[in-house]
Design goal:
With about 160 residues, the chain is of the alpha+beta class. It has one domain (about 5-160): 2-Layer Sandwich (Alpha-D-Glucose-1,6-Bisphosphate, Chain A, domain 4), CATH 3.30.530. Helices cover about 25% and strands about 40% of the residues. It is built from five helices and eight strands. Strands 1-2-8-7-6-5-4-3 form an eight-stranded antiparallel β-sheet. The protein is globular. The chain starts with a strand and ends with a helix. Belongs to the AHA1 family.
Length: about 160
Amino acid sequence: MPVTDVQQDLDNLTLTITADFAAPVERIWQVYADPRQLEKVWGPPTYPATVVDHDLTPGGRVTYYMTGPEGDRHAGYWLVTTVDEPRGFSFDDGFADLDFNPRPELPVSKNAYTFTEHNGGTRATYVSTYASAEALKQVLDMGIVEGATLSINQVDGLVAS
């Protein structure tokens, strides 16, 4: 399994996930830069994603929805803040209604994804920062660790194919 570590830090309001992949940095970058590849790993296997808009540039927006086993849909968005191809990018990640309007009652996280060379492959570090301990606890209670781990662990199969 690619995910090697998960750290929840309520004092610093962060969730950090580390994963190691047997693929070069440029290949891991492509997973996030290509909306069709992103769909294969964004969301756990039982909640596959459909990427609607994909502008991975500073100021750009990515919109998507995940479809559950009962046909239920859950939408979200990224507001891209920085891009350092192929080493990583940062974005605000929020929940949305099905028209991709932000849902202010749910937390928004500031995310920094970094990809570095490690043991002939790539170490990916995914850091999500929340506005409050309550916001972090809310997403933890929603199952973010399990969902993110299942999602990230799908990258290996995609880059191997």
